[in-house]
Write a structure and sequence with these properties.
The complex is a heterodimer of chains A (149) and B (408).
Chain A (H helix, E strand, L loop, with lengths): L3 H4 L2 H8 L12 E7 L4 E10 L2 E10 L2 H14 L4 H16 L7 H4 L15 H15 L6 E2 L2
Parallel strand pairs in A: 1-4
Antiparallel strand pairs in A: 1-2, 2-3
Helix pairs in contact in A: 2-3, 3-6, 4-6
Chain B lengths: L6 H5 L8 E2 L2 E2 L1 E2 L10 H13 L10 H21 L7 E4 L2 H16 L5 E5 L8 H10 L2 E5 L9 H7 L4 E7 L11 H10 L4 E4 L11 H4 L3 E5 L10 E5 L1 H6 L10 E4 L4 E3 L13 H17 L1 H20 L4 E4 L8 E6 L4 H10 L2 E2 L1 E3 L4 H6 L5 E5 L6 H18 L1
Helix pairs in contact in B: 2-10, 3-10, 4-5, 11-14, 12-14
The chains are: A alpha+beta (149), B alpha/beta (408).
Bound molecules: pyridoxal-5'-phosphate.
Pyridoxal-5'-phosphate binds next to helix 4 of chain B.
Chain lengths: 149, 408
């Protein structure tokens, strides 16, 4: 098993203690709720779109350090992006945390690479990915509750 | 006061405990989820499959007879463990969950109707909530929930006020899996009986720690899981008073549970076979019998006080950690140390402890209403067994110090 410090990196802990965009969005164009029944983690993602640009994105909820930091970094990485770009980031992130063999797409991922250590901790992948599935549900405006199960 | 119990000797009987996990000696503190198995249980299952495997109650041949004798012999051990009056009151199940569902189906459906009430508590495992919700939904009955106080004890006055002629069943956990509280079950049963309501006790977390005497308790149903009592998974027991079981229809139809079948009429078998349709978990039952022998050879009177001492030691040690709060602080507890730490999610606690070789459970422990009651999403839970030691607790404390260090 890799050292814990690969998982709980400084930057992750910092996002956990001071999550970015941890708030509601007034009059959001889209929202979605996510839930991990295994641990009770719960998240709401708010989006404000103008055309196909993500003008604002924020989240609220309760969760572990990994799910909070992942959500916080996610909002940073997609804010101001086009819908298609956000989907691309989603795909790169999803691949990075679920597939230990593939080479991460560092250009697309930026800071999100911090979370690459998670694929060594199968029990925690769902924590990292909850916010992202919830985002995707909001992006696609499916509007139904997402669960990790 | 030290009890003089030799936990190291017990520990040596459990091969799983003799290993390193993530480079550290395993500290197994997840006994509430499932316990480890002593060599004697493993050997008995191997012996059965190696020398005796055959179907039970079917054959005239020698192996079938031996398998039947051992399968029924294990039932007799379980009857003695619970001090039931008769072997026919011991029904083999797959575990606690199946036992409760069987009672909900075969006792609940014929006896509970619209407007009737079933009482449970705020600290039940989901397996003692959902089957009753399903039954209430089907029958138009009402589920009532005894509230608990901040220490994790039942509010007995509220319970008293809840009992009435519409109360048709009380189903309560003997020991809470999320909090460790030992319920005042004698009193619960007496009060229910005064209102004519039978009582089911969920003994999943009780039997591994406390001697249980179903006749002294006068409970009507008692269920537990073999895998939490050092036995195999997929095993368990439903005890029921013979007169209640006799009147209940079977849950499954098939072989073994019938006396005779024609297309016009089928006559059900006698107890306990009426409830044991199909080929049972024979090796599991025999393994569970070996687990009962093992537990009794160590002796509740020997490991019980030792576990109490360990729990007290652990409670003191964890209480001295700044920012840590124990959830479930009743003075009447066994086996369970549930806790939360300020600003650190239990999941992260679990992962960091695991890296230190320490196994605890984190989450809602299949008891979400308890978490809601304490307004927390989850806890970390260390759960003890007779093979745990003060050294395990010390390792846990060091592990928690490490968690706090990572997050500081
Ligand atoms: C109090 C309690 N009841 C019921 C259960 C369910 O047991 P099983 O999963 O073995 O059926 C458990 C086990 O987690 C428990 O702790």
């Amino acid at each position: 098993m890799p050292g814990l410090s690969d998982l709980y990196q400084e930057i992750l802990l910092e996002h956990n203690s001071k999550p970015r965009n941890f708030r509601r969005v007034e009059n959001p164009s889209r929202t979605a709720e996510g839930y991990n029944p295994l641990c009770g983690d719960q998240i709401t993602v708010y989006l404000k779109m103008s055309g196909d640009i993500i003008d604002d994105v924020a989240f609220q909820g309760v969760g572990c350090a990994i799910s909070r930091a992942s959500a916080s970094m996610m909002t940073q990485s997609i804010k101001g992006k086009k819908l298609s770009e956000a989907n691309q980031i989603f795909d790169a992130f999803h691949l990075m945390v679920t597939d230990p063999i593939s080479e991460p797409d560092y250009d697309t991922l930026g800071d999100l690479e911090t979370l690459s250590g998670i694929n060594e901790y199968p029990t925690r992948i769902k924590c990292a990915i909850l916010a992202w599935h919830t985002l995707r549900s909001a992006l696609n405006d499916q509007g139904k509750k997402v669960t990790t199960e | 006061m030290p009890t003089g119990f030799d936990a190291e000797k017990v520990r040596a009987d459990f091969p799983v405990l003799q290993q390193f996990v993530n480079g550290k000696p395993l500290v197994y503190l997840d006994n509430g989820a499932t316990s480890q198995k002593p060599q004697a249980v493993i050997d008995e299952i191997v012996r059965y499959y190696t020398t005796e495997n055959a179907n039970v109650h079917r054959g005239v041949h020698t192996l079938s007879q031996q398998a039947t004798d051992d399968y029924e012999g294990a039932r007799a051990k379980l009857r003695r463990l619970l001090n039931a009056a008769d072997d026919q009151e011991i029904i083999y199940t797959r575990g606690t969950t199946e036992g409760i569902n069987l009672v909900a189906h075969s006792y609940g459906r014929p006896n509970i109707g619209p407007g009737d009430e079933i009482i449970i508590s705020n600290m039940e495992h989901h397996s003692n909530i959902v089957p009753w919700q399903m039954l209430c939904e089907e029958k138009g009955a009402v589920l009532r929930v005894i509230p608990i106080d901040d220490t994790g004890e039942l509010l007995m006055d509220e319970y008293e006020a809840m009992l009435n002629p519409r109360t048709k069943l009380v189903s309560i956990t003997h020991v809470s899996n999320a909090l460790g509280t030992i319920q005042p079950v004698e009193q619960i049963i007496e009060m229910a009986h005064a209102h004519g309501a039978p009582v089911l006790l969920d003994g999943a977390q009780a039997v591994p720690h406390l001697p249980v005497d179903v006749r002294q308790l006068d409970c009507d149903f008692y269920v537990f899981s073999g895998h939490k009592l050092f036995g195999p998974t997929g095993t368990g027991v439903l005890y029921g008073k013979a007169e209640l079981l006799d009147a209940m229809p079977p849950m499954y139809g098939g072989g073994e549970m019938i006396k005779s079948v024609t297309f016009e009429k089928t006559i059900y078998n006698d107890l306990p076979y009426k409830f044991e349709a199909g080929t049972p978990n024979i090796a599991g039952a025999i393994g569970l019998g070996a687990a009962v022998d093992y537990v009794q050879s160590v002796g509740y009177q020997a490991f019980g006080p030792y576990e109490d001492e360990l729990l007290e030691y652990g409670t003191k040690a964890l209480s001295s950690i700044g920012g840590l709060r124990i959830i479930g602080t009743s003075p009447r507890k066994t086996g369970i140390l549930s806790f939360v730490i300020d600003n650190i999610h239990p999941h992260d606690i679990g992962t960091i402890l695991d890296a230190e070789g320490i196994a605890v459970r984190t989450g809602h422990h299949c008891a979400q209403p308890v978490m809601q009651r304490f307004q927390i999403p989850a806890t970390a839970r260390a759960s003890l067994a007779m093979y745990n030691t003060k050294a395990d607790i010390d390792a846990l404390v060091r592990g928690i110090d490490r968690v706090i260090e990572v997050f500081s």
